[in-house]
Automatic annotation (TrEMBL):
Organism, as annotated: Myripristis murdjan (pinecone soldierfish)
Superkingdom per UniProt: Eukaryota
GO biological process: pseudouridine synthesis; RNA processing
Region (Disordered) location: 290-341
GO molecular function, one term: RNA binding
InterPro entries: PsdUridine_synth_cat_dom_sf, PsdUridine_synth_N, Trub2
Compositionally biased intervals (Polar residues): 301-311
Protein name from the UniProt record: TruB pseudouridine (psi) synthase family member 2
The gene coding this protein: trub2
Annotated Pfam families: TruB_N
Sequence ranges assigned to domain Pseudouridine synthase II N-terminal in this UniProt record: 96-234
Family to which the UniProt record says this protein belongs: Belongs to the pseudouridine synthase TruB family.
Amino acid sequence: MTTPCIRMFRRLEGLFCVYKPPGVHWKHVRDRIETSLLTGVNGTPQRPLPQVVKFLAQPGAGNDGSSELTLSAASVPVLASHPLVSGPEFQRIPVAVGHRLDAFSSGVLVLGVGNGNKALSDFYKTPATRDYTLEGEFGTATDDFSHTGRVVERSTYGHITQDKLERVLAMLQGANQKALLMYSNIDMRSQEAYEMAVQGLLGPEGKSAPILKGLRCVRFEPPHFTLEVQCLNESQKYLRKVVHEIGLELRSTAVCKVVRRTRDGVFTLQDALTHHHWTASDVMGAIQQYHSSKKLRKSPHTQTKDPTIQSRGEDKKTESQQSEISEETAVSTVLHTLPVH
């Protein structure tokens, strides 16, 4: 028979995400969440202790005035099942971390609990696109490409304009899109490439070098600027180096002041729990929300409705029109993945 603690733990199994603040190592985040979940699960109200019938000796007075022991039946709790005797039911709750963030980065950090660790392993292997916001500053170069590193060079930045910055970003994005096609190991003239382009699934097979799928400037106030990046197989150090190389391409220098992950696959900042909500009840709610959204994403593909029942009047597009639209989508996708000269 399952206990209340076990039932609560089963409701906690799955994936969720938190917002990792800057300056905190991801291990500290994981350990704090694990401790909070242990407290919540072991603090679940327990069932009453099982009772057993025992015969207890009670002194009594006999007819001749001598004291005798008499036995009386009584129901007493089994203290061996008491938490103060047996200890907490859960000594450890396995909490795993997906795509990690270094100590100086912040943003979406995906975690798994229980059997969610297997789902997290599958999630880690998929080529999911991750989005970042990078805040940089022109005029300085450091040994680790961050604003906290040792300054190795200072330069001017008055000649930099937003138009020049966007041209460098377009050049960098074009080179990465060419690498994306190379790591895909797919003949772009094949039917397989066509079908993957229609579905938007072109990407590297397994692990590859970091690839920037998208790169644009959202704020330009020299010497400060902000970039939005969509990438694969990246590290935060690589993203800081990208900011450094952008500065060099503009005949200046640049350091990265902020690295913030805003999306990891299907998880966004709106789904992330802040440190005030790293409790068992809030984590349970986030996991249930993830399961619900997962079912909604699968529902269009699991419908069993027979398409032949649909009347021709309800079908707005003919088969030839649909094929033309799919072909235009595929061609557009392939063209956008060609390098920019």
